[in-house]
Every structure is written in structure tokens, then in C-alpha cells.
Amino acid sequence: MKSDKPRIKLSELWSQVDFSKTSTLSLIFSNLLVIFFAIVDGISANEVLWIYWSQSVIIGIFNFIKMITLKDFSTEGFKQGKKQMLPTRATAISSAVFFLFHYGFFHLIYAVFLGAFSEFSHSNGSSSGTKYFLISAGMFFISYLIEFINSRKEQAEELPNIGLIMFAPYARIIPMHLTIIFGGFIGAAGSIFSTNTNLAIIVLFIGLKTVVDLFSHSIDFKKLKKQTANVSD
Predict the structure, then answer these.
(1) Is the pLDDT of residue 195 over 80?
(2) Domain residue ranges of the chain, discontinuous segments joined by +
(3) What pTM value is reported for the model?
């Protein structure tokens, strides 16, 4: 399954980030707080990544529920091979099941990597690590559940596009994927020079996460649709 959409330049995404908005500044501040608490409370890079992983899994679960319960939706640009998908109940179910296994498989693989990641990053789990993990996952689940329920009550101005819904959570994979790759190199270098690379890996991850968060938070699909349409014309 794929969604045929015009190519979007990073400059177009970045142009939509409004640093004068309180919500944008709050997002940046909340990410910087993770680095602060990592220094003060000794939270390891591995624990930070596990918290982020749990949040991604929660988002995936709610996204699956959202997709499989869709009744009226658009399939514009959403194809299986070269076949244009129709906005039917069968499309919603098959797309949701595909997403569940595909997105779930990614996170199963990441869980395996994270299980061994601490050896490379020299990140020994702190005594408060489990507490932070459970509290963070619990709070995130509750807040996302409330947001999910409220969004179901709201009347959308236009039909939701099942392709956009399906692929939206995959943006969260980017920071984790790149951190595991480059964090491995940083951790290996730390092992050679007997240096604790925990903070360096956290800064790398939070930096990548912040950029993705800013794009995800600020993106206006309607505006981008007009921009890309003008470019294609």
C-alpha cells in the first residue's frame, strides 16, 4: 500500500514552524527538560528511548483504532500497487490491519535493539528509570485517550484521508532509527576511549526528536496541498 502525494520540500515544512507561538516554544522547552532531568536525575539514554518507544506504541494503537473505525473517509492518492483504493469498509479494515502489523513489526525490532543498546551507550539503568517509564507511559496514555475521545466528538470540516492517517505515526520512527544508528557509533567510540557517551546520545536523540516534533506540530496539510499543487501546475 502506498499514498501518492507530491514531494514536499523540507524548506516548505520549516517555513510553517512559527517560533513566536507559545505552543512551539513550550514544545522546545519540554524537550530541553528531558536533557535537564537526564543530567540531574541520571536518566540514561536507554531509558529515554524506552519512554519514547512506549509513546510511539500507544500512538500506533490509537491510530489502528481510528483507522479500523473509519466510516466516511477519502482515499485520494491512496493505492495498492497501481490500483486506486475505494473508500469502503473493506479498505478501512485491510489498511488498519496492514498498519498494525507493519508499524508493530518496526517497534518489535526497535525493542530488540533497545534491549541491547545500553551495552554500547554505557547507560546503566538508574533506580528511578522504571518509575519514570511507568509514569510517563501512563500519563501519555491518559492524555492521548482524552485527545482521542475529544477528536471523535468533533465534526471534521472535510473527510479524513486514510492514507495520511496511516502514514502519520511513521514520522516518530525517524529520531529513534537515526539515534540507534549514530548512537551505536558514538557508543562504540566511547567504549574505545572509556568515555560515558550517555548524555551525547540523549542530546542527539532530543535534537532529532525536536525537529520532527516541530514539523509534526506546525504542519498544515491544507496549506501544503495548495503549495505543492501550485508547484506541480
Answers:
(1) no
(2) 20-227
(3) 0.77
Q: How many CB atoms lie within 10 A of CB 116?
A: 10
Residue 197's SS3 state is coil
- Contact yes or no for 38/132 (Cβ under 8 A): no
Rounded Cα gap, residues 173 and 209, in angstroms: 10
State in Å, rounded, how far the first CA of the chain is from the last one. 26
CB contact at 8 A, 45 and 121: yes
Q: In what order do the strands lie in the sheet with 78-80?
A: 2-3, 78-80, 83-84
Say whether 3 sits in a helix, a strand or coil.
strand
| Higher-pLDDT residue of 96, 19 | 96
Task: Classify burial at 105, counting beta carbons within 10 Å of its beta carbon; exposed 0-12, middle 13-18, buried 19 or more.
Answer: exposed
Q: Which of these, 131, 126, 118, 125, lies nearest to 201 by C-alpha position?
A: 118
pLDDT of 201 higher than 60: yes
Beta strand pairing status for 83-84 and 2-3?
Answer: unpaired
Interatomic CA distance for residues 20 and 78, integer angstroms: 35
Angle (nearest 5°) at CA 201 between 54 and 186: 130
Per residue in 58-99, pLDDT (tens digit) is 989 999 999 999 888 888 888 877 788 888 899 999 999 999
